[in-house]
Amino acid sequence: MKTSNPLGRLFGKNPFTAVNEHMLAVLACVEELPALFEALECHDKDAVVQQQRVIFELEQDADRIQRNLRRELSRTTFLPFDRRDLLDLLRMQDQMADDAQDIAGLAYERYMAVPSVVQPHLRPFVDQSVRTCRMMAGIISELESLADSGLSGPDANRVIDIVHALYDQEDAADEDGIKISKALFAEEDKLDPISVVFWYRMFQMIGSIADHAEVAAEHLELMLATR
Question: Where are the domains of the chain?
């Protein structure tokens, strides 16, 4: 049966199908973070341990998908774009899962009891970073159907518009990160200094999820713009 997909005729299986599968695995990992911080806020050490295990397992799933796709790409003769661009996109996506793993590891290894001064700001900050990652997953899901138009035209412009909206979400995450850091430092003389250091590091890792989503979106925008 003939296909209406020009990329499918030239290059076989849509490479974005596997990229989307990987991004969904990354998102599944990141979306476990709110439950991790809820466990920390509730002082539920057993739940923290459980969430750490879940996040680590999901991060390993994302790694397996990435390795398989890299092997597949090495055997692919033709692609509608530079192979390195796709490999770089995968690496940028995977960094979000790595961030989630780092966060879970720190929360588990040190047991990061939440200071009361940052508690009102913590969940909104986490949720905003997760939201930015989820938006990136939505963009990647669009690429499967976008391949039908050869990664160009009005559909590509619509995806680029969504990318620009993601930049706004990342800006909001940055603002939340500044807000929670200021709240921590305003009361640092009343807190254990080591805890202040580790919580500031935790805030950086939470913000890195949104940062890496933005970097991946910028890379994707460049891929589309140069077609």
Answer: 15-225
In whole angstroms, what is the distance from residue 202 CA to residue 130 CA? 15
Question: Running DSSP on this structure, what letter comes out for residue 188?
Answer: G
Q: Is there a contact between 96 and 31 (Cβ–Cβ < 8 Å)?
A: no
Kindly report the number of other CB atoms within 10 A of residue 110's CB atom.
Answer: 12
Cβ atoms of 167 and 139 within 8 Å: the answer is no
Q: In the predicted model, what is the mean pLDDT of residues 21-46?
A: 96
Query: Looking at the predicted structure, is the pLDDT value of residue 178 above 50?
Result: yes
- Is 50 exceeded by the pLDDT of residue 13? yes
Record the tokens describing residue 11, joined without a space: 């290059």
| Cβ 196 vs Cβ 184: under 8 Å | yes
For residues 14 and 144, the answer to whether their CB atoms sit within 8 Å is yes
pTM here? 0.88
97 neighbors 25 (Cβ within 8 angstroms): yes
Task: Provide the token pair at 205.
Answer: 């890792």
pLDDT: which is higher, 16 or 134: 134
What sign results for the dihedral spanned by CA atoms 122, 124, 128, 131? positive
Unique residue bearing structure tokens 């790409």: 73
Dihedral sign computed on CA atoms, order 186, 187, 189, 194: negative
Domain 15-225 is of which CATH architecture? Up-down Bundle (1.20)
Cα separation, 66 vs 23, whole angstroms: 9
pLDDT, residue 222, reads 87
- Which residue's structure tokens are 């459980």? 50
Rounded Cα distance, 37 and 12, in Å: 43
